[in-house]
């Protein structure tokens, strides 16, 4: 049981090991800003993991890049803009809701509303349609059916 608890504690602590000591800045305020920014940037290798938690080499390079930009005096927005210009908007964990992304944000709900409208129109049209007239068998067809069933 103790081993299971120890293994769970180690698994939960793994993201803490992602930032290596040689990456940490001496200035605690800059380091806090770097950590905050790193949590907003996606690791391009791990997909839905931020670079602060990722152990991938590219994530480490991005963490170093963020820290270098902060040391040079860039603001948080300037650092994010620099990384986005270099790697594209995919690097953001929370994409912007402007430009081409606005189309993607609107497309899902718009398609749902369109499908609902088509469904409602179909159901209403089916309700208004005249029922199909039943065709009775002719006398000849009824006689033939009786002969088949009698066999």
UniProtKB/TrEMBL annotation:
The keyword Lipid metabolism is annotated on this UniProt entry: no
The protein's role, per its UniProt record: Possible subunit of a heme lyase.
Family, as annotated: Belongs to the CcmH/CycL/Ccl2/NrfF family.
One term under GO cellular component: plasma membrane
Keyword terms: Cytochrome c-type biogenesis, Heme, Iron, Membrane, Metal-binding, Signal, Transmembrane, Transmembrane helix
Residues that span the membrane, as ranges: 102-123
Protein name: Cytochrome c-type biogenesis protein
UniProt record, GO biological process: cytochrome complex assembly
One GO MF term attached to the UniProt entry: metal ion binding
Residues spanning the signal sequence: 1-18
Statement: the UniProt record of this protein carries the keyword Transmembrane: yes
Domain (CcmH/CycL/Ccl2/NrfF N-terminal) ranges: 7-149
């Amino acid at each position: 049981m103790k081993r299971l608890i120890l293994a769970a504690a180690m698994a939960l602590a793994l993201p803490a090991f992602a930032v290596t000591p040689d990456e940490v800045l001496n200035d605690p305020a800059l380091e806090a800003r770097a950590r905050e920014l790193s949590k907003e940037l996606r690791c391009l290798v791990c997909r839905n993991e931020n670079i602060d938690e990722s152990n991938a080499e590219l994530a480490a390079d991005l963490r170093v890049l963020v820290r270098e930009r902060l040391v040079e005096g860039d603001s948080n927005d300037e650092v994010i803009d620099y990384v986005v210009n270099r790697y594209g908007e995919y690097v953001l964990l929370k994409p912007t809701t402007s430009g081409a992304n606005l189309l993607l944000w609107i497309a899902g709900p718009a398609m749902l509303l369109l499908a609902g409208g088509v469904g409602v129109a179909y159901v209403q049209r089916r309700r208004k349609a005249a029922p199909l007239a039943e065709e009775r068998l002719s006398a000849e067809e009824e006689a033939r059916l009786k002969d088949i069933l009698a066999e």
